[in-house]
Amino acid sequence: MDDIPRDQLSGPLRRGAVKKHVAAIHVSGKLTLLQRKLSNVLLLNAYDTLTSHSRHQIDARTLCMMIGYNSNDMDTLKASLRGLAETVAEWDMLDEKGQQEWGVSALLSYAKLKAGVCEYAYSPALAEKLHDPKVFALINLNIQRRFTSGHALALYENCYRFVRTGSTGWWSLDLFRRLMGVADSPYYETFKHLNAKIIKPAVAEVNKTSNIVVTPEVRKMGRAVSEIRFRIAENPQLAILDLDDGEGLRNTDVYSRLRALGVSDRLARQWLTEHGQDYVKQKLDYVADQGRVTNAVGYLTAALRDDYGAQVSQRNPNPPTSLRARRLERIRDLASARKPTQRDADKRLFMARLEGAAREDFERHGWMSALNAEAIVAFWTELSPGAFDGLDADS
């Protein structure tokens, strides 16, 4: 699922004693496409506090935006949440001591909607499993929005976890039918029907829509197909799909400079998204001009926050901060206080209002876009009434 930050998939999070490359945990494939997308967004929203908090919250407007349906359709949202609470997740894996562990849990232990906020929780046992990066690998939310078939998205989720090994390994047809949500249908007990109606269409959509290419292979017992696996390769032609999830930013010189300085992947992408490349480059240049700095990352953080190196008047070295600067600082604070899914939804909601040069300027500079300054203030005032109160006075 697109629910685990990429910079958390390495280092101390890896357990040397786990003997399986990818833990065997499966969520019922009976989820609809909308429910599957909803599950991914909820998990991404909760991931950072998955094991430390017993419940999680996300505003309903953001949630609807991220899964792509009318924000006023609360009945659909309620039905989808109900479906997640009624869906079973099952795991069967080796623990850190090499002992076999089997477990089962509802995908959500509860969910509720109140005052425009969705609150939900996972069972402690499932939260622990979901937080292990070897259980659920990354799935790009920008990619999942493109899927039109629940079977295709289910296939993508179960294949993408194995992208680094190049193959899912052999699955029995019974397991595969469960993953696709058709285990209860006698029609799909015949491989001919399963192949024609499920496998071929799902493979075609995954290869057309996503950042991987999958190729099915079957193994027979006698004349009957008994097992299936999928070979997996990256799809470089659709690498552009990763733009909203950081790949575009990772290909920039400014990102490389940030990483070389010791800035984490997530923080580097956050700064570039919130401040724009030009502003971050200015502060990198400023920090570089200061010579050796004991804590370069901390110094750069302050430079970005407090606009170090800005031109000041020779007559007045401490001039009043401009209204625009005060507004920009407030906008940075508002944006940084949002969770990753909310920040993504905010940008998409605002960008949907823009066209032509205004849209291009926002894509380049984000919330620091001078061309859209007034519209940005209006947007954040709508999201957070009173956010700019008191800023008009000189300071």
From TrEMBL:
This is Replication initiation protein. Pfam families: Rep3_C, Rep3_N. Belongs to the initiator RepB protein family. InterPro entries: Initiator_Rep_WH1 (IPR000525), WH-like_DNA-bd_sf (IPR036388), WH_DNA-bd_sf (IPR036390). The lineage of its organism: Bacteria, Pseudomonadati, Pseudomonadota, Alphaproteobacteria, Rhodobacterales. Residues 18-159 form the Initiator Rep protein WH1 domain. It comes from Psychromarinibacter halotolerans.
